Amino acid sequence: MNAAVDLDPCSKKSVPFKSIDGGVTAPRGFRAAAVACGIKNPEVLRLDLALITSDTPAITDAVFTTNKVRAACVRVSQQHVKLGDARAIIANSGNANACTGPQGIQDAKAMCKATAEALGLKMREVLVCSTGIIGMNMPIQRITPRVSEVAAKLSPTGNEDAARAIMTSDTKPKIYAIEVPLGKGASFRVGGIAKGAGMICPNMATMLSFITTDAKVSRDELKRAMRFAVDQSFNRITIDGDTSTNDTVIVMSNGQAEAPAIKKGSPEAEIFRCALQKVMMELAKMIVSDGERVTKFVEIRVVHARTQADARKAAETVAKSLLVKCSFNGSDPNWGRIIHAVGYSGARIKEELIDIYFNGLIACKGGLTSKTAVSDLEKVVKEPRFTVTIDLNSGSANHTVYTTDLSEAYVDFNSSEYAAALHAKRQKGLV
Amino acid sequence: MNAAVDLDPCSKKSVPFKSIDGGVTAPRGFRAAAVACGIKNPEVLRLDLALITSDTPAITDAVFTTNKVRAACVRVSQQHVKLGDARAIIANSGNANACTGPQGIQDAKAMCKATAEALGLKMREVLVCSTGIIGMNMPIQRITPRVSEVAAKLSPTGNEDAARAIMTSDTKPKIYAIEVPLGKGASFRVGGIAKGAGMICPNMATMLSFITTDAKVSRDELKRAMRFAVDQSFNRITIDGDTSTNDTVIVMSNGQAEAPAIKKGSPEAEIFRCALQKVMMELAKMIVSDGERVTKFVEIRVVHARTQADARKAAETVAKSLLVKCSFNGSDPNWGRIIHAVGYSGARIKEELIDIYFNGLIACKGGLTSKTAVSDLEKVVKEPRFTVTIDLNSGSANHTVYTTDLSEAYVDFNSSEYAAALHAKRQKGLV
């Protein structure tokens, strides 16, 4: 049965992951903390400035937004990543420091400088991330004076505070960590936190994810694993098809685990890659499920495409189609909208070869309506989670994307509700 | 002022167009008619089968959907256009004859054959278009027996019936025609009808437009004018970013005007191109304004891009962005969402060079927030029609796209309301 094609390169490895608490502070030698600076609104204090550090030097890699409009914090962090390995992340919510010109760069550097001073590090050892409203200067006078305080609060139990401090319209913090046995009685750990991908209140949001690990990996291996894991996870989710000015994934590895060093090309290197993927994937799924006003979580699998590029184009186009997302929202097993999106995706397809499944039930066979009872298909799409498999029957390439429905509440939230809230803030002079 | 860049290649020619009644039957020698076959629902009779003919042989050109999933009628009409010049269009609403396999091809051919027989033409002289639900076989037994009846009804006043018969979720027929003086006391006419581009009830809709002209033009000139006019009009509108399986624009020219023949490369050839553009543009704007549950009509102008491709990418990405469309719906002058969409459009841009205007008011200057009072910008976006100009300040290429807001009602219509209606029909065994 075509719907059974396995798309996860890690699923066949029986890696004994154990889910553990602690997020970014689960791996040994990492600490975190957060304080409330009133960045978004000085009248409403909530955690909005987070700090994550490694006690010892770390190997660090990062992936940044591909948007050509890049926030000041992204520009500064990109430079620092180029210069060498950072071991601290200072991150705020409430202001994205995007479209802020030279003043924004100065503010992002000021945040790094204050953090470096508080921790006794070099400036380039600090990465800075911001998320929130764009086009407004940072209220930097409310931020830099608080950095020494958040540094003083750093603790191995500060993970949840940090996870909460980077939230914007997220309804809950996103935290995940695993322990992986490696070597005799030893293990390594990977942990992470993330915040929502939905383009959201107050102005536009950002996908941020900070990952830590105590595995002993080389810089090359970390980079390789990072690319693999990001491509398998964060690059496969879509809520509204937008990429933000601030999207950033950072991974810091400090080698403090007792597990032995992971050698290039070894089975352990593969285990490490899959461990990193596992953490990123869980965080990515949490982001999708917590998308703005989302009621459905849908896995779109394109199988047997001619090439990887064809599989990706078809899956992404279906996952982003407004009409497909509307039909998910209405619990309508509308394979017509799906095949139509495949048709304009740019993927090389033959209409008469396409089969479409809702979970295991075939809805479209060879481009034509199947004999499956519509009432049975409807049962599937009424579920909050289901899989759509599009079998192109043209080759051996596969791709999966995770998407959501499009709800009236999403539109309401991003239009009238949003505009009303912004208008109220403008009246008060808050933005 | 950058916002004043003129993007319409025809706007500088003072072509004395006179708007006239009659749509496709305004040009001399064309007739139209429609009948009600109960294609969508035999219990609810409404006009759903239209016929448009030229009394004399015509030169015909057509542009079809780029979607790789193509309706049977599109496949058959593409063949007929290749074989020579058609002079009749038979078109139905209520069923798109898409994803219907060999049976669909047979049905599309049967419609051409019945029309050819009724009119004494060759089969290849008939083009066939369908719009409506996909994945369901045509109720052909309710259609072909009625073709002789619609042929008998053909009249120079049948335009509005034909325009109504191709409507699906359109709220009104789309009709436009002009007369253009050419030669001593002479003129030529161009007229057209169209139906909605929104992906719509019952399953997915189609942009159909049928244009007629009595101008004396050569086949080459007609083709050239067709490409130009379609690119300036129908290719610049977007409601939900989808292209349908059935999109078709047909132009038929019968040379029955008294105006002299239009020579290649002459000023008259340019006038003809602009006349064709004018008719298509007015129909395109009607389509956008009548988009599903649309409350705003917005012109997105990208000016001073490095290349035409950059201008087009930026304009189309902004016009399709859910968040930008939500902000229009909420009357929010949110230039942040606009610059952000420009950033991920793939256009080559420099953030610090970008200016963004709402009508004549600058909202973003050099990538930063302008000094314009937000209350003044809000006044512009509260209007039902306004223009967003994005000046990339990087070159001399420009592109315009016409778009709409995204309303909660659109989502409601395409999800729950749609699904409920479909479910009810399934219960009745109608689909």
UniProtKB/TrEMBL annotation, chains A, B:
Site-annotated residues for Involved in the stabilization of negative charge on the oxyanion by the formation of the oxyanion hole: 131-132
Pathway: Amino-acid biosynthesis; L-arginine biosynthesis; L-ornithine and N-acetyl-L-glutamate from L-glutamate and N(2)-acetyl-L-ornithine (cyclic): step 1/1; Amino-acid biosynthesis; L-arginine biosynthesis; N(2)-acetyl-L-ornithine from L-glutamate: step 1/4
Key word Manganese present: no
Reactions it catalyzes: L-glutamate + acetyl-CoA = N-acetyl-L-glutamate + CoA + H(+); N(2)-acetyl-L-ornithine + L-glutamate = N-acetyl-L-glutamate + L-ornithine
Site (described: Cleavage): 205-206
Subunit comment: Heterotetramer of two alpha and two beta chains.
Family: Belongs to the ArgJ family.
Annotated Gene Ontology cellular component terms: cytoplasm
Function per UniProt: Catalyzes two activities which are involved in the cyclic version of arginine biosynthesis: the synthesis of N-acetylglutamate from glutamate and acetyl-CoA as the acetyl donor, and of ornithine by transacetylation between N(2)-acetylornithine and glutamate.
One matching Pfam family: ArgJ
Record protein name field: Arginine biosynthesis bifunctional protein ArgJ
Gene that this sequence comes from: argJ
Subcellular location: Cytoplasm
Superkingdom per UniProt: Bacteria
Keywords assigned by UniProt, alphabetized: Acyltransferase, Amino-acid biosynthesis, Arginine biosynthesis, Autocatalytic cleavage, Cytoplasm, Multifunctional enzyme, Transferase
One MF term in the entry's GO annotations: L-glutamate N-acetyltransferase activity
EC number of the protein: 2.3.1.35, 2.3.1.1
Binding residue positions for substrate: 168, 195, 206, 292, 414
Main location: cytoplasm
Residue ranges that the Swiss-Prot or TrEMBL entry lists as coiled coil: none
Active-site positions on this chain: 206 (nucleophile)
GO BP, one annotated term: L-arginine biosynthetic process
Keyword match Transferase: yes
